[in-house]
Specification:
Blueprint: H1 2-13, H2 18-35, H3 38-54, H4 58-74, H5 79-95, H6 99-112, H7 118-133, H8 137-154, H9 157-173, H10 177-194, H11 197-213, H12 217-233, H13 237-253, H14 257-274, H15 277-314, H16 317-333, H17 337-465, H18 471-494, H19 501-516, E1 522-526, H20 538-559, E2 563-571, E3 574-581, H21 595-606, E4 610-615, E5 621-628
Parallel strand pairs: 1-2
Antiparallel strand pairs: 2-3, 3-5, 4-5
Helix pairs in contact: 1-2, 1-3, 2-3, 3-4, 3-5, 4-5, 5-6, 6-7, 7-8, 7-9, 8-9, 9-10, 9-11, 10-11, 11-12, 11-13, 12-13, 13-14, 13-15, 14-15, 15-16, 16-17, 17-18, 18-20, 19-20, 20-21
Length: 630
């Protein structure tokens, strides 16, 4: 009991006070060693691996990982110890960037999981994080969402906050910054509520990264400073160094190379102090990039100065004035405003001097022009007659052009009016059709539906009065019940409010729950997001729902399945629905001529679609329905 209490305290303070949590872990190891409590000893080693990695003490982490491996090999029958070792090894190799080496440990733990609990959810979360680091964001999101579903099911808010952060990371790498920020804010709210200081460090890092990619440098700096302050307070060296690197990158983008170099230098010194060669290399690379960029600027400045000296020697004042202007712009772009102002003044002074000389040249030019004007006037008189003739021709052409433009405008306006009239008519017809569908659905429900309900109730009462003695009453009850169910489906398919895919899926889920829940059959709907922006007409919805109901009924009656998966896909211009069970299956050559399957295929054909059945004895049954959606 003492060891369990100490483990509980360690877990409680792990996210709030790392020093205190490490002290409790050391007590766990000492007490478990004295009591020969193997599981407690293994749990203590696992926590020490985590502390060592957070402090970038990889030799210590490797030492405790070796002790955990020894316990796992010595007690192969204890799955708890095996799971702890797999989890620790996977996290250790993931932290080292050896993602392919980490994957087998997480996958093995998923296989060992027997129920949806905190351990399974944590393993799925780490598996998703590993795939994310490998840029396999499809698998990453898949496992993150599975983990989130389990944490929500068991009410574990801390686990939910981790999953939300990981999903935000997936969206960030996919450049979906709005979705990334949404999930980070949700994670931040949960971690704040739980007092998870360690989690707040990484969430503020994530929000800083999003702001940086949006060029919101001031906001990004605020988030990074919060993360850095808390990481230092909790002595999380690894997170401190990562935050310093992100801050430096933010300064480079501003650009503020002075601050960037200061932060990179500080981060490099801290990484070297802790002996982390990977992070040291990252800081070195950033500093080298800055050096190369500054060298390029120096080369550019040198080229401008050389051009300037050449123009001074040549006496080309016009070119010299232009070069002064270019140098002023260059220094302004590089935030050297003192030199920019100096060269701008030189440019303006030389420009005024050049314009003074230009006045004398202009006077001589005007004098020459005056002499030439007399001759030109005589020539102008001769040209005027020609110009008058050309003007007349131009007016005629202009009138013709105006007439053509007016005619084209009339034609365009007429076409637009006709098209608008057609659109209005089409809209009116659609509105009338919607009203008619609503009226039919209401009349079927209110009139025929109520009548069928009355028949069903009366037949049930008659059955009770006759103590079940009349088969005719039984047939009336059965047929009326069947007709009520069919009528419900017809009313549902006609109703325009059910045109959206969400309402179709909701109806499917409702039917699946009604049929499968009493049988304790697990069912899963996936790929619902693929139906966004798809609108199904009444006939398609009706036949799709009836095919689905027939498939679920068959699986419930004959397959003996314990799990059924319903998956939606959108392939080019087709909607594909896959229904797969893990039941006993059957030989399709023997049992492919039933009415149910034939009806399903006929309905698929009526939608210009295709239905495929795959099954074999002992291998379950799969149905794939493909229907066009355009």
């Amino acid at each position: 009991m003492e060891v369990k209490a100490l483990l509980g305290l360690t877990n409680e303070f792990l996210r709030k006070d790392v020093t205190l949590a490490r002290g409790y872990t050391q007590q766990v190891i000492r007490t478990s060693s004295q009591l020969q409590y193997i599981y407690g000893l293994c749990s203590g080693y696992v926590y020490m691996i985590s502390f060592s990695q957070s402090g970038l003490k990889m030799d210590s982490a490797l030492y405790y990982l070796g002790l955990t491996e020894q316990l796992a090999k010595a007690h192969p029958e204890d799955t708890r110890i095996i799971k702890n070792y797999n989890q620790s090894a996977g996290l250790f190799y993931k932290a080292q960037g050896e993602y392919k080496r980490a994957l087998p440990y997480f996958l093995e733990n998923v296989k060992l999981a027997t129920k949806d609990d905190e351990n399974k959810a944590g393993t799925l979360l780490n598996l998703g994080n590993t795939y994310s680091q490998m840029a396999d964001y499809g698998n990453a999101m898949k496992y993150h969402l599975q983990s989130l579903a389990i944490f929500e099911k068991i009410g574990n808010k801390r686990g939910q906050s981790f999953c939300l952060h990981s999903l935000a990371t997936d969206y960030y790498f996919l450049k979906q910054l709005d979705k990334a920020e949404e999930y980070l804010q949700r994670s931040l709210a949960m971690k704040t509520e739980l007092g998870d200081k360690r989690g707040l460090v990484t969430t503020w890092q994530g929000l800083g990264n999003v702001a940086k990619d949006r060029n919101q440098y001031k906001l990004a700096d605020q988030y990074y400073n919060k993360s850095l302050s808390l990481a230092r307070e909790m002595k999380l060296a690894g997170d401190e160094i990562i935050t310093l690197h992100q801050m430096g990158m933010n300064y480079m983008r501003k650009p503020d190379h002075l601050e960037a170099r200061k932060v990179f230098t500080e981060g490099l010194a801290r990484a070297r102090q802790l002996g982390d060669s990977a992070l040291s290399a990252r800081f070195k690379s950033s500093l080298i990039s800055m050096d190369l960029e500054e060298q390029k600027k120096r080369n550019t400045e040198s080229a401008y100065i050389n051009n300037l000296n050449t123009l001074i020697l040549s006496g080309d004042k016009s070119g010299l004035s232009l070069e002064y202007s270019r140098l002023s712009e260059y220094y302004a772009l590089n935030n050297n405003y003192e030199k920019a102002l100096e060269y701008l003044k030189m440019h303006e002074a030389l420009k005024d001097s050049i314009e003074g000389s230009a006045v004398l040249v202009q006077l001589r030019t005007l004098e020459e022009q005056f002499k030439n004007d007399q001759k030109e006037k005589e020539i102008e008189l001769l040209k005027k007659d020609q110009e008058l003739h050309k003007a007349e021709i131009s007016r005629q052409r202009a009138n013709t052009s105006i007439i053509i433009v007016v005619l084209i405008s009339v034609i365009i306006i007429s076409v637009l009016l006709i098209n608008r009239y057609r659109v209005l008519n089409r809209t009116r017809r659609l509105v009338e059709l919607e009203r008619m569908r609503n009226t039919i659905a209401r009349d079927l429900h209110d009139d025929i539906g109520s009548t069928l309900s009355s028949i069903n109730i009366i037949s049930q009462m008659a059955l009770k009065d006759s103590n079940g003695g009349s088969s005719n009453f039984q047939r009336i009850a059965q047929h009326s019940s069947s007709m009520m169910e069919s009528m419900s489906d017809i009313v549902w398919s006609i109703n325009p409010s059910n045109d959206s895919p969400e309402r179709v899926i909701s109806k499917m889920k409702e039917f699946a729950a009604e049929i499968l829940d009493p049988l304790d059959t697990t069912y899963t709907f996936t790929g619902e997001e693929n139906l966004q922006a798809i609108k199904l007409d009444a006939a398609t919805r009706k036949n799709l729902l009836l095919i689905f109901k027939e498939a679920i009924n068959n699986a419930a009656k004959y397959s003996g399945a314990s799990a059924i998966t319903i998956h939606f896909r959108k392939i080019e211009d087709s909607l594909v629905v896959d229904i797969q069970d893990n039941g006993k299956g059957f030989d399709t050559q023997i049992m492919s001529s039933g009415n149910g399957l034939r009806n399903m295929k006929d309905r698929a054909a009526s939608l210009r679609g295709k239905l495929e059945l795959k099954s074999s004895a002992g291998a379950g049954t799969g149905i794939s329905l493909s229907i066009p959606i355009t």
